[in-house]
Amino acid sequence: MPRTHHLRVHPSADRLARTDQLAWAIAEVAADPVPVPDDVVDMVVNRVIDNAAVTAASLTRSPVVAARAQAVAHPHAASSARHGSTVSGLAPDVRVSPEWAAWANGVAVRELDYHDTFLAADYSHPADNIPPLVAVAQHVGRSGADLVRAIATGYEIQVDLVRAISLHAHKIDHVAHLGPSVAAGLGTLLGLAPDVTFQAVGQALHTTTATRQSRKGEISSWKAYAPAFAGKVAIEAVDRAMRGEGAPSPIYEGEDGVVAWMLDGPDASYDVPLPGPGEPKTAILDTYTKEHSAEYQSQALIDLARRLHRERPDLADPANVASIVLHTSHHTHHVIGSGANDPQKYDPTASRETLDHSIPYIVAVALQDGRWHHVDSYASSRAARPDTVELWRKITTTEDPAWTARYHSTDPAQKAFGGRLEITTTSGEVVVEEIAVADAHPLGARPFARPQYVEKFRTLATDVLGEAEVARFLDVAQRLPSLGPDELAGLTLVAPAAVLDAVRSPGGLF
What we know:
- Helix content is 45%, strand content 8%.
- By secondary structure, the chain is α+β, with helices and mostly antiparallel strands.
- It folds into 2 domains: 3-286, 2-methylcitrate dehydratase PrpD; 296-435, CATH 3.30.1330.120.
- It is globular, with a radius of gyration of 22 Å.
């Protein structure tokens, strides 16, 4: 049976027992050796392929090149017990320390904002759990089945925390839920006792609580680095905990802890849903990936805009449009809409990361182009096109309580991340169109299944890696549940040297 962990603040005088703390409950879930259901195994494979797709497309982007250079500066000498970890793009015999592999590979996964998502009380990209878990599995010689179990745990814990605890309401970056989930996944992978994972979860949470300024104003490459940093420090936390070192406790419930001073305060309480003993970890099935390289709340609106491009091409011309208002959820309005009050969201010289978080820009380009491309749609020349800028600045957002309610609904049939476009033309016509979920969503017009994940990988990877490497990786990834430890090194991408050598990173300390 599922369990609900009631989380509240306790004064130090309570001497709250470890076994009554949320970090301990998370550790117990990690230690439960429950089998992984077949549909969860299948989805884990899908998300490994999905991560590889966006990794291939980002291998030559500056943040990824820099992170890879940092990782390579921390080589690992293989031994009989520890093997080091692979780095995306490089040959499997190039091995680095696992926390640095998690760093480099995590940046590559996150750079394009193009992998999976889960949105509830907070938001997340649960596939950020995969790079650190793969790195450690390679390092310690675990099997593919071990890795699948660990990934199922990582997803479960992150999704359960996201269902219950809002970070963004207090301007805390969402990676504060990722550090604990990676630590829990590593607990499963390594077969750690709950008291060890408990300490690692506490350390990982303590070191990954940071402000949301990484996703506000002039958004920089740190948006991609932040989740990789969470994975890196979670590995380091597990290493320390395995050596007997402790964490701040109680990390969530303490009177100077996370809930009391970073979240809803000393009188706050939350009900965190967790699997009960013997209950399978299935949260990955509630997550969804992206067809388009943009913030998830824009996915459905891109689909709606490209449909309008076909049906009403006149609306792509700013001369025909007086205004476009998107009625949507509180989160979409305040984070990627005009409710953020960020002038950068209307700036044609803004960074790619900023444009990715501007729904007015995204709607304008998708309406004009009838598509969304992970490179072309963000090109500086594309953003600066005069007719685009004119149309873009006619687009605003407003919060609609009905869409906010659907955003927060716990009913999968009602939960939605779309909105209603009201377009007023210069002739006085009002065009009203709405969409609830993206086409690729499980309830959308064209839900993603294995063929779509494979096609996304082929589309993004073939020109970078070549057909032979694409075929090789797909073979390894789809055999993940049966891979032996000696085969897990193949769960990486190898790019031609000419591709990687085309981009150089400035030198640093390492």
